[in-house]
Design a protein that fits this description.
seven-stranded antiparallel beta sheet, Jelly Rolls, 1 helix, about 5% helix, about 120 residues, mainly beta, about 50% strand
Length: about 120
């Protein structure tokens, strides 16, 4: 049986979600070896947007850690606020727009399997 890694604090999200003007994108990504989850801390400056997309294979949990915004689906828009936890089921279509103060959120989902090179059938 493999040796278990001890539990430990990986980061303080409040240190990464200050008010300084920074470009949108990932401010932190979980990179621990042997993990079963993927997680990212995403920041969107004021009024920036993640365009409409869907995730066909994975459920995603979104946790708002600072700011405000909206998550849009084909049927409705919902307000996002600090502390909200949003479930985005696999196959769902959504977009995310930051409010006037920007938006920082964690996305958490099952780790995607690594790419594997395989022979085509019949080769």
């Amino acid at each position: 049986m493999p040796e278990e890694s001890p539990a430990r604090v990986l980061l303080d999200v409040h240190e990464l979600v200050d008010d300084s003007p920074v470009p949108s994108g990932a401010r932190w990504t979980l990179t621990e070896p042997g993990r079963q989850l993927d997680a990212n801390l995403i920041h969107l400056p004021a009024r920036q947007r993640v365009d409409t997309h869907s995730e066909p294979d994975l459920d995603v949990l979104l946790v708002v850690v600072a700011g405000d915004g909206r998550v849009g689906t084909p049927d409705e828009e919902q307000t996002l606020a600090d502390g909200n936890v949003v479930w985005l089921p696999r196959g769902s279509t959504r977009n995310i727009t930051a409010g006037t103060t920007g938006l920082s959120y964690l996305t958490i989902h099952r780790r995607r399997p690594g790419l594997q090179i395989r022979n085509r059938p019949g080769q």
